[in-house]
Amino acid sequence: MSLARKILLGFLFVVIPMQVLAWNWRTKISLRLNNQPLSTACEIIEKEYGIHFSYSRDVVKMNRLVSLSAKEMPLRRVLDLLFTENGIQYKRIGDQLVLTVKQSNTRTISGFVEDAQTGEKLIGATVYFPKLQVGTTTNQYGFYSLTTAKDTMSLMVTYVSYSPMSIPLKDDVNKQMNIKLSPINTLQEVEITDQHVPPLQEQTQMSKVGMPVAQVKAMPRMLGETDVLRTIQAMPGVGGGMEGTSGIHVRGGSPDQNLILLDGTPVYNSTHLFGLFSVFNPDIIKNVDLYKGAFPARYGGRLSSVVDISMKDGDMHGYHGEFSLGLIASRVMIEGPIFKGKTSFIITGRRTYADLLAQDAAIEALKLGDGEFWAYFFDANVKINHIFSPKDRLFLSGYGGRDNMRVKRDKGFDSLNGAAKQYHERMNFGLGWGNQAYSLRWNHIYNPRLFSNVTINYSQFLFDTDYEYKFEAQNAIMESDSMYGRYFSKVQNAGAKIDFEFRPNPLHTLRFGAQATWHIFQPGITRFTNVSDSTRLTDTAYNNTTNKGVELSLYWEDDFKLADSMYLNLGTHASAFLVSGRSYISVQPRLGFRYLLPRKWAFKLSYTSMTQYIHLLTNNATFLPTDLWVAATKKVPPMFSNQFALGLAKTSNDNMFEMSMELYAKTMQNVIEYQETADNFQSATNSWEDNVVVGRGWSYGSEFLLQKKKGKLKGWIGYTLAWSERAFPNVNNGAVFPYKYDRRHDLEVVLTQQLGKRWELSAQWEFATGAPLTLPSGSYERITDPSPHLPPSTVEPRDVDVIGNRNMLRMENTHRLDIGATHTKERKGVRYILNISLYNVYNQKNPFFYSYKRNEETLKRELTKFSILPILPSISYAIKF
């Protein structure tokens, strides 16, 4: 090579960058962009490094703004950050980079799953791809979203008691697909073998129980009434309090710590007839979910549980109804279209006539003379559902119910000398309480993966009692005495919230939203008037005030696959409460973890923090619902809890059996209790804060549940081993004592057996450790004089008790067997349903309460057990058309 040629080549190597002559994927690139178009990035790389780009401006959108800071970064990494993240593919052809639009290999199928006959949206229906064994379930509005590979050929949809459906997918585009499932005729002996309900080990959520309505209606009935809450009581970790009542307490918590939602609206008092029945008419209920712990971040405001109840939407295509006649109550339900395929309605009503049947017996038992007695409840539900478009639906729902009781006595007394009716006594006592709950909801689908629900709601609970007493002595002095009193309590809330649900793929669900609630409390107004001898007048009113508070909350929760066999649910519920010039702020983290073990076992773990800004003041001295709802104040702060749970879960290979075991521990701060010296009138004054004490609570235990889900014989066995304790500075000398709902052992066995095409038998047996009990540790006698306004009587000693330590004794253990039989037949499209039930089959006399009673022979006081619910047969008859 000549010298001149060598000099020329050396000059070229010096003045021409090496990148122009040759580049590879490891070529180092330094680049800084701050919200600049992709086209600018290409220009800089081409100018600085001689790398040329080729693309069609009509196809590839290069005006997207990007930000990037790269220093000596490999070329491929830079290109991934610039193009791959923005849906653009790149490929080297010669010395050029050719850019094209990235072609997605996935598609999203979304829509609603509904009843083919009525248009009712199905909650919890399973939508999955059999080939890939991945799927999802519909949310509480019946919506699903499922993203998968384009080459997936078929979709399977299943729901309990409905015929499964396989849907071929002929194209590969995103689409909204509303799926209609046909219900299986329950009179036919059909064995469903291909239901694909997600096994327990595939659900990250723990401490949750789904309650099918068919399961509720199959349970043995008390006095002919099916009851959602009494069915929930049969689950481990859930108790019912007093014998025969339908209220619930969960994992050692009190009844006010349960958030009970009806179509997203809170219900403050959930029982009728002094707790014997719940306020929820089973004819309008579509779905019930119970959360005992591991609360999703979308729920807040209570410490112990969430009972989420959804009402039916109403038949979009035809008119249907049901009428049921029972021993103490009758029900009616009517549903149908207002505009076919567009608007539907459903209405239910229920009333008891126990007052009509038992009035004479009650008058005689209460010695009312010429007086009156009546007690009844009624409730009604209504819901309207309208479809504006395939992406927009509107729901309007309402509930109203009330209990009323009235006792009147009109009686005369004779004096000792035999004169006729010189004394006259009149008494009038009334008691009533009731709920109202209304909601307006709008569902909207933004795109196949994003769904939202906007809710506006209002709820109210009212308690009202009044009494009037008048006494007259028809003699020369003409003595008279009269009193009038009224006790009134009310709580209201109005709220608005928005919830979003985003499903990018079958293994990832993101939920987020916000809520604002306006609370109004009237915690107890007492008015008292006394007129004696027509000379003295006392007219006093207490606590005629209204307290208001605002509760605000934000939440997000993310359920996703963390790694192979590991799944995580993370979330946070942040809230604030503004009341009486004071503000409280709470951040409540939520965690759920699931790990798949060998042989299809799942290990689950959860942590939940909850805050409750309202309190329920409960008077232990009465069984009436005289409870007061009050807001947290400067002196009485909000309650909060921390709950840990871990467990194992498994579904058998044939989906026949499900088994779960859980251990839990919960701590509670700022729980309240009346002081031992407080009474009803003191608690209703403005100084109710001075009559309560603030303390701590603990509950911990284990739960076991074995369910048989398929076959003619179905049912479950549930067992709970639990402890629940409380401690207050000025109660029980500050020592820890068992809480009144502490039950050490609780065993439930529930079975249903299908006999032929028309008969279904059911049985429920329960056993529970006796409830804690406080009894006097001693007593002494005090002589009292008779009232001058009553007929003369002999002077008798009065026993005064010395109360012992709180809840140091226990009532007897309780157990009971209930059975039922349901016969169903159908003629010309009309279904006739007869139910015969027997409550407390072997007439077990379980204690309702204990008291001391003086023995007439020995003149000594003896502890007496009172039982109120003996063996109770019942029958009900329903016609469904």
Question: Overview of this structure, please?
Answer:
The protein contains eight helices and 54 strands. It is globular and about 125 Å long. The chain folds into three domains: 16-101, 3-Layer(bab) Sandwich (Phage tail protein beta-alpha-beta fold); 106-198, Immunoglobulin-like (Sandwich), CATH 2.60.40; 298-880, Maltoporin, Chain A, CATH 2.40.170. It has a 22-stranded antiparallel beta barrel. It has a five-stranded mixed sheet with strand order 14-21-22-17-18, with no helix packed on it. Strands 6, 9, 12 and 13 form a four-stranded mixed sheet that branches. Keywords: Cell outer membrane, Membrane, Signal, Transport. This is Secretin and TonB N terminus short domain-containing protein. One of its GO terms (molecular function) is siderophore uptake transmembrane transporter activity. Residues 51-102 form the Secretin/TonB short N-terminal domain.
Query: Are there runs of 5+ residues with pLDDT below 50, and where?
Result: 7-21, 186-196
Which CATH class of the largest domain applies here?
Answer: Mainly Beta
Question: How many helical elements?
Answer: 8
Structural class by helix and strand composition: mainly beta
Helix and strand topology:
Layout: H1 3-15, H2 18-21, E1 28-37, H3 38-49, E2 52-54, E3 65-74, H4 75-82, E4 88-93, E5 96-101, E6 106-115, E7 126-129, E8 134-137, E9 143-149, E10 154-158, E11 165-168, E12 175-176, E13 179-181, E14 208-210, H5 213-218, H6 228-233, E15 238-239, E16 249-250, E17 258-262, E18 265-266, E19 271-272, E20 277-278, E21 285-291, E22 305-311, E23 320-325, E24 329-339, E25 343-352, H7 354-365, E26 372-389, E27 392-413, E28 423-447, E29 450-473, E30 480-505, E31 508-532, E32 536-542, E33 547-563, E34 566-579, E35 582-597, E36 601-612, E37 614-617, E38 628-631, E39 639-651, E40 657-674, H8 680-683, E41 692-708, E42 713-727, E43 737-738, E44 745-755, E45 759-768, E46 772-773, E47 776-783, E48 797-803, E49 809-810, E50 814-827, E51 830-839, E52 849-854, E53 861-866, E54 872-880
Parallel strand pairs: 2-5, 6-12, 6-13, 17-22
Antiparallel strand pairs: 1-3, 4-5, 6-9, 7-8, 7-10, 10-11, 14-21, 15-16, 17-18, 19-20, 21-22, 23-24, 23-54, 24-25, 25-26, 26-27, 27-28, 28-29, 29-30, 30-31, 31-32, 31-33, 33-34, 34-35, 35-36, 36-39, 37-38, 39-40, 40-41, 41-42, 42-43, 42-44, 44-45, 45-50, 46-49, 47-48, 50-51, 51-54, 52-53
